[in-house]
Amino acid sequence: MEYKQFVVKAFEREPGKWRASVERANGKVLLRAMARRRRALDKFITGMDATAAEAAMRMAMAAIDANAFSRISYRDTRQARTARKDIEPRGERAGAQTKGVLASTV
């Protein structure tokens, strides 16, 4: 079956033990090599056995939903850190709200 631009297939490893494989629908690799020693990942196979094909496919789709096959670039993480710094810390916001409430009650 095709799910979010991935092809998910269930197969029976042994009688009653199901797993699922995940590949990109366009034929490209799931993850490119990020370091010299790592190889590209063409196909992912779930690591746990399931009792039914549907359960194995649900595990594979959960990995897709968890963005297990997306690579976040350094630039994206740097932008996320910068955006977090722009947000006011929770404690300061809570303190400011409490001060306003106390001042109006006095």
Features:
106 residues, globular, 3 helices, 20% strand, alpha+beta
Describe this entry's structure for a reader.
The protein is globular. Strand 1 (2-3) and strand 2 (6-14) form a beta hairpin. The model has no long low-confidence stretch (mean pLDDT 75). The chain has one domain (2-85). The chain has helices spanning 53-65, 74-86, 90-105; strands at 2-3, 6-14, 17-24, 44-45. It has 3 helices and 4 strands, in the order ββββααα. The longest helix is centred in the C-terminal third of the chain and has 16 residues, at 90-105. The chain has a 4-stranded antiparallel sheet, with helices on one face. With 106 residues, it is an alpha+beta fold. 40% of the residues lie in helices and 20% in strands.
Provide the low-confidence segments as ranges: none
N-to-C CA distance: 65 Å
- Count of discrete domains: 1
Please tell me how large the radius of gyration is.
23 Å
**Total number of β-strand segments?**
4
Level of helix content? Answer: 25-40%
Element order: H for helix, E for strand: EEEEHHH
Arrangement of strands in the largest sheet: 1-2-3-4
Total of DSSP H or I helical runs spanning 4+ residues: 3
Q: Strand-residue fraction?
A: 15-25%
Q: What's the overall geometry? A: globular
Largest sheet, if any?
4 strands, antiparallel
Overall mean pLDDT = 75
Structural class estimated from helices and strands: alpha+beta
